[in-house]
Amino acid sequence: MKKLIVTAALTGAVTVPTQTPYLPYTPEQLAEDAELCAKAGASIIHVHARNPQNGAPTSDMEIFGEILKAIKARTDAIICTTTGGGVGMTPADRVRVVPTWKPELATCNMGSMNFSVHPIARRFKDEDYKFAWEKAWLEGSEDFIFPNTFASIKHFMLEMRKTNTRPEFEVYDVGHLYNLHFMLKEGLVDTPIWLQFVMGVLGGIRATLYDLTHMLDTANRLFGPENYNWSVIGAGYPHQFNMCTAAIMLGGHARVGLEDNIFLRRGVLARNHELVEKIVRIAGEFDREIATPAEVREFLGLKGIENVGF
User: CB neighbours of 3 closer than 8 A, spacing ≥ 6?
Assistant: First the structure.
């Protein structure tokens, strides 16, 4: 697709409310941000569930359902649900959203890894935290392994096939591409593949142009350029805009949002829709039009909003 697919990742499971007052975590806040992001040009809304009382990540299916229904009521954008979840959630917790709510698109993480945000905790004093859970959550990630075994990945893929949910394959390092290639040979993956290069997470590949081209070269060798399409995430500032701008130039697609980066520019906290607006402006400088939800549904072969379970 020559037009740019913009994904807005609204809240995630890593950013904590203390970092920014603009982080949405109630169903109403998430729906409002989703609507604004869609109006700004996002065709895909990436969703994690949060406890509406304190912003803590949750795998509660009722809360997830409230969020999905609220977003669907306000926009026709594609909703991509996480199966990454958060620290301490089991694979069963994480994948439950697929059979429960049957989304059009869901993430599928392609390998186990160290995944840490513990350096963020050093930026705040104990009295700075808005909620009691946040400090332990951040610090505890230093000893966290994000588990994605071949058995759990296979289970996630099969659950998505049952509901005709399209996988968005999250690859945090080159080895994850080889894992995906193995699953393709096992007959568990349909082409063209929709890849999300996740770059800049502590424990994964760095967010540099060198590393992005290395990932692309590897994907080209393994799958052939005609058998996959890709988007990129740059974790943190300025990586979000550096990597997304590179993707715009190289024919890929872009994900922005407070899940990955909280700054609009250095020292200036962002709202989700402002991050979308900025990447749309950058795309305009390179004469790349922005894809609509209808165009993305056709391009990715999605089942349509009328066939979800919410």
Answer: 288, 289, 290, 291, 295
